[in-house]
Amino acid sequence: MEPKRLNKFISDSGFCSRREADRLIEEERVTVNGKLPAPGVLVTPKDKVRIDDQIVRVREELPTFLVVNKPSGMSAKSDPSIRDNVVKAINHPSTLEPAGYMERDHEGVLLLSNDIELVRKITRFDNRLEKEYIVTVDKIITPEFIAKLIGGGENDKGEKLQKTFISKEGSTRFRIVLTPGTNHNLKMLCEEQGYKVVHLQRIRIENITLAKLATGHWRALNQTEVEHIRSIVTSKVKRDTEYTFGRDSKRSDAKQPGGYNKISKVGSTPRVGKSKPKETGPKKGGAGSAKGSRGSSRTTTSRPSGPGRSGSAASGGRKGSSGPKRGN
User: Fold this and answer.
1) How far apart are CA 23 and CA 7, in angstroms?
2) Cα–Cα distance, 88 to 80 (Å, whole number)
3) Deepest in the core among 26, 116, 225, 250, taking most CB within 10 A?
């Protein structure tokens, strides 16, 4: 591992953020090899870094960035004390942390990485990222409900509000694209209109889609995908909120980076032998299908278009696997 600045080293260990590490260094609570560090000191895992007599360790790992199609019922946390943990289920050799937010009963695209600084930025600036969902509610969708979610118009200051792209997929199911800077709490948005979300699947974050990634499987992100996300969460410039992806884009032409890998059945250790994880996602064409089904009517504002491909899941797990495998 290349030498790192001390605050970056502490941040990468997961102990705290860089800003908090700077504060600890200023308070002289950090020592390197038994001595107070000089300003701008560089350290490696061979150095003994302590904070209040607690040793800080960073594993020598290659940068790892994954996307997993998280099943419903699995926790999107890294805390080992939490049952049915996605990090435990993946059982990857790298020290991974989930980036952003996802509730246990939701499914779909979830990002993980051992780049702790990037994970923190993705989580902190979560609403800067454009996301696409398939949502099923508890009763018939009305034109009034769609109109409320589409929004638009002007706020109290006379500023024009960004309209939301919505496509009705069935009598109780719709597709929605949440643009940067808008309210990304779908459950609350629906509850405000008297609807309850009964199923929610995230099928895209920016240019990262489910593609043919089956429920409970994961793959490595390519460099383009990683740098795109990094540029958004580290930028100080307000983003253009035009839609860049959508259901009619020719995603089938895009090459899938890396290989597909699978995680264990919810609530179990990695599977061994010919057994395969139980699919918890809905059947093809249902609410959990990234491709979805066309409803008899559809309300839209502007039609997204761009790269990527539809996220209908592949069927079943692979035989003869022992835990997850690295992408090709």
Assistant:
1) 9
2) 7
3) 116
Q: pLDDT of 62-99, one tens digit each?
A: 889 999 999 999 999 888 788 888 998 888 888 888 99
- The pLDDT-based confidence of 224 (bands split at 50, 70, 90) is very high
Give CATH for domain 4-56: 3.10.290.10
Q: How far apart are CA 322 and CA 11, in angstroms?
A: 32
pTM assigned to the model: 0.61
What average pLDDT is seen over the chain?
Answer: 75
Residue listed under structure tokens 């779909």: 108
39-73 as b/e, with b when 16 or more CB fall inside 10 Å?
A: eebebeeeeebebeeeebebeeeeebbbbbbbbbe
Is the distance from CB of 91 to CB of 270 less than 8 angstroms? yes
Count the neighbouring beta carbons within 10 Å of the beta carbon of residue 182.
17
Numbered ranges of CATH 3.30.2350.10 in the chain: 65-262
Nearest to 11 by CA among 25, 185, 150, 250: 25
- Whole-number Å distance between alpha carbons of 308 and 78: 29
CATH tag, 65-262: 3.30.2350.10
